[in-house]
Amino acid sequence: MDRTPIPVLTVQTAPYEDQRPTGGGGLRRPTGLFESQRNYLPNFVQSLLSSVDLRDRQGCTMVVGSDGRYFSKTAIEIVVQMAAANGIGRLVIGQNGILSTPAVSCIIRKIKAAGGIILTASHSPGGPGGEFGVKFEVANGGPAPDIVSDKIYQISKTLEEYTICPDLRVDLSRLGRQEFDLENKFKPFRVEIVDSVDIYLNLLRSIFDFNAIRNLLTGPNQIKIRIDAMNGVMGPYVRRILCDELGAPANSAINCVPLEDFGGQPPDPNLTYATALLEAMRGGEYGFGAAFDADGDRYMILGQNGFFVNASDSLAIIAANLSCIPYFCQMGVRGFGRSMPTSTALDK
Q: What's a Gene Ontology MF term here (predicted)?
């Protein structure tokens, strides 16, 4: 534990007019804007943290993760330094800063955190010429509702200062707890680096019949699968869950190393960009294929010979086979969530 108190500084700034969150508490802009505009990221992070009532913020726990895109490590450092200065008591961060959006949601609910910050621009390109973004999830693990997004935006328009501990440094590669003494703080600030996959994998074990899936992938009537992580955050999850845990051959998974620029292609799981997967599926060797976007909350499914399965049908297939999913057998189903343009497949 570092026994030297770390200074907490207040920095004067000027507000930006373009920091209205969209898409569930998220701000997505060209990466160059975050890098070149003075205090652009600190302003938004301060607005986000200030949107949490002071009584709820002091000493609370928050989760932080990223999709590994360019500028993520710099941004995580700023988020950590500002969270400490704003009275957050504990941060739980994925090893090397990597956490998928579903995993952040899972951890928030598991440890009853106050919320989570995810550094991602979803399916947008990465790299210096790409995009960067910040998303906020609230205590139920879901995206920030409009009332929270509006509060963040109103704060951002009048922001005059932010607080930060610029000398605070965290080792994102080392699993375990790190503690820091801050000036004017009675309790140490804690950071816990956790395995990016563990908690999410345990959740999946409690939902699905892993033995049945393992038999499907390894048994006498096994189905061959092809999964494309598109060099985004899902690489470690695909390797660990589908290959290590469920027995799919290692060559079932492609593009599983998270890259800052996603290999030069937008990490967008569609027929335009997931071309390597599409070509492999068209050959007829594989019976099931899937691709994920950068932060793991969107996917594309392909059947044998490249048959495209739209999201409406995949939801309907789940609804029609609830008896195969242990979680729903035990807990029942309260409803199905879908957007306005969803087809009638679910009704049928």
A: phosphoglucomutase activity
- Which residues carry out catalysis? 122
Helical H runs in the chain? 31-36, 40-50, 54-57, 72-85, 101-111, 146-158, 198-207, 210-218, 235-237, 275-282, 311-320, 326-331
> Residue 24: its pLDDT value, please?
64
* The pTM of the whole model exceeds 0.70: yes
Residue 15 sits in the same domain as residue 160? yes
Q: Supply the DSSP symbol for 231.
A: T
Amino acid 32 reads G
Give yes or no: residues 328 and 237 share one domain. yes
* 80 and 157 within one domain: yes
Instruction: Fill in the DSSP letter of residue 26.
Output: B
For the chain of 348 residues, list the mean pLDDT of each consecutive stretch of 10.
Answer: 81 96 85 97 98 91 98 98 96 97 97 97 96 96 94 96 97 97 86 97 97 94 96 97 97 96 96 95 96 96 94 90 95 85 82
Domain around 106: 9-195
Question: Do 224 and 185 share a domain, yes or no?
Answer: no
Say if residues 100 and 200 touch (Cβ distance below 8 Å): yes
